[in-house]
């Protein structure tokens, strides 16, 4: 083999590894706190907000139903973040502006959906407890680099920001 085919093979391998790395970063799975499971979250909610067993089971159903929605939002945001990084690397200001606008739009869609999800959980609490729950949880609806997924329904000291 001559040097040219070896260089092409090398470049293809580098591109494949870069593609894998970008995809792995953009489509990272939800990252709950270690030891924070749905059962521990629900047990805390039940104790902290005085939920009945029936309300706790309804909240379990709500969480289960929301998970694929949340995962879809996370995946879309991850892809939009990758598109923004690509646009940044390209140096095209119009492409970057469009990518940033799309990323902001997707984050807003996610935040609104998550707030709706939290309100549906709060609907199974007394009015005073619902207000306290929403005040606690709404502060956790954010999109910073280390955050993926809906906020953990657990004590503030047990969940990631």
**What amount of the residues lies in strands?**
under 5%
Question: Which structural class is indicated by helix and strand composition?
Answer: mainly alpha
Could you report the average pLDDT, rounded to the nearest whole number? 81
Overall geometry: elongated
How would a textbook summarize the main sheet?
A: none
* Uncertain stretches: 28-32
Alpha-carbon distance between the termini? 54 Å
Count the domains.
1
Helix content: over 70%
What is the number of helices?
5
Count all strands and give the number. Answer: 0
Task: Describe the protein.
- With 161 residues, the chain is mainly alpha-helical.
- It has one domain (3-158).
- The chain has five helices and no strands.
């Amino acid at each position: 083999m001559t040097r040219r085919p070896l260089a092409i093979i090398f470049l293809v391998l580098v591109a494949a590894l870069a593609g894998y790395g970008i995809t792995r970063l953009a489509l990272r799975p939800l990252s709950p706190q270690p030891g924070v499971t749905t059962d521990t979250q629900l047990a805390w909610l039940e104790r902290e907000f005085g939920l009945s067993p029936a309300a706790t089971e309804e909240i379990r159903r709500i969480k289960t139903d929301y998970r694929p929605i949340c995962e879809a939002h996370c995946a879309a945001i991850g892809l939009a973040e990758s598109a923004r990084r690509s646009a940044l690397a390209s140096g095209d200001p119009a492409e970057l502006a469009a990518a940033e606008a799309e990323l902001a739009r997707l984050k807003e869609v996610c935040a609104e959906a998550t707030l709706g999800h939290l309100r549906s959980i709060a609907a199974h609490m007394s009015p005073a407890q619902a207000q306290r729950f929403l005040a606690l949880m709404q502060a956790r609806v954010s999109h910073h680099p280390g955050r993926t997924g809906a906020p953990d329904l657990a004590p503030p000291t047990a969940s990631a920001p």
